[in-house]
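seq/struct pair 1
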Amino acid sequence: MSERRRIGVLTSSRADYGIYKPLLLALSKSQQFDLIVICFGMHLLEKFGLTINEIKQDKFGEIITVGALSEGDTKSDVVKNYGNTVKNFHEVWDNNHYDLVFALGDRYEMSAAVQSTIPYEIKVAHIHGGETTLGAIDNIYRHQITLAATYHFPSTDYFGKKIAKITGTNENIFPVGSISLDGVDHETIPFWNDVADRFAIPKSKSYVLVTVHPETVNSQVNSRYATVIGDTLLNIANDFHIVITMPNADTTASSYRKKFRELKQAEPNSFSLVESFGRQNYFSAMKNAEYLLGNTSSGIIEAASFGKFVINVGDRQKGRLRSDNVIDVPFDQNQILISHKKLIKRKGYTGGNKYHKPNTVSNIIKIINEKL
């Protein structure tokens, strides 16, 4: 029997953890790997739902925690958090051997963790590289991770070609599709009534699912954008209940969090705020929503597979490949409401999803087996 390989998986937020889950399940069941979930960033903060508890409940493998993030969201806080993350990771690499470490996406905490691997010459496999988000500084962090990675698992052939331009080589680039969509057609999605009860959401009301994160390029605009979104949602609330998933730890995220809490306080029967649904509960919320509104990657990558249209607001996702379910609008109340009125009259989206490929996770497992 061949030696079992030690595989680390870096996870810093509810967002990447939800995407990782099909891969984590496959790695945990494999007889060829020992899985270590390296948990840091927002997972460890009560402000963001203390989502490490979800990771512990899933029991996919050994868990290592690395603390670094503060509660603040100023530019200075982001710089300090980045530096502390790099510094604190030395103990992980000093005290443990890994044959491969997975990193996903583009957040600054993920970039910091990956940068810390460079002196140790650790092999990194990057998921969702090659994408573009011109309205977020994550665009830079994503490419930093790409340059530090050994293996690349982009979601589409188009993004694979972009990685080749960044790295200067076509080697070790494997476009496999989005792992969050792996097996989603057969996945057991919780009944919405059960999810609504768990999160104190009125289950008899039709609703719009809203997720708005800050634009971290030209971040000074977020205070004004938060006001625009707040005023717009008050109008939409005349037609539907509003279910809001709260923003991540980005620069000036507090302006949106404050606005959403004000909406809830002013109109408690019209708004529901959720810190973290978790993957399957979020899929249930997406599946049963009238449509999605905001600027989250799940609207771009996953919503099409659930037959949902998306009003994508602003530039945060600008540059990402889109399926035909996405309606792009600026942070302008009138234009958002025009799209809202159009979607009231439309049935669900029935087209394809450009991010979906069959057997995504099994192909990743096969490739890393061959490479290691």
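seq/struct pair 2
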Amino acid sequence: MSAEATILELEAARCKALTDANYAVLGEMISDDLVHIHANGSCDDKRGYLEGIAAKLEFLAVSRPDVTVRIFGEIAVATGPMIQTVRIKANGATVEMDARATIVWRNEGGSWRICSFQATSVAPH
């Protein structure tokens, strides 16, 4: 399987891990030195990201249509739309998110892991 196809499969698995609230699987997909920049501009490391989403959000739907993957040796960059529906645990509100995301995957000893994530909200038209 090509590296591009592997990353696309991993992206699908990442979306499923979010909707299944399977943070153990998600944690295995993330590098220990993760830098995760949320669409609102806040930044988390691996621990902060995993703890924050587990405590604050329920992912009802996550999709990555039309992702483009570029490979640069041991680095893969996946860019494209990210559509999410989340429930805010604190108040039960449901939020639809239309964003563009760049996810950097790094091959760490034969396993691809996310080392950088940047999401940007798409302004309503």
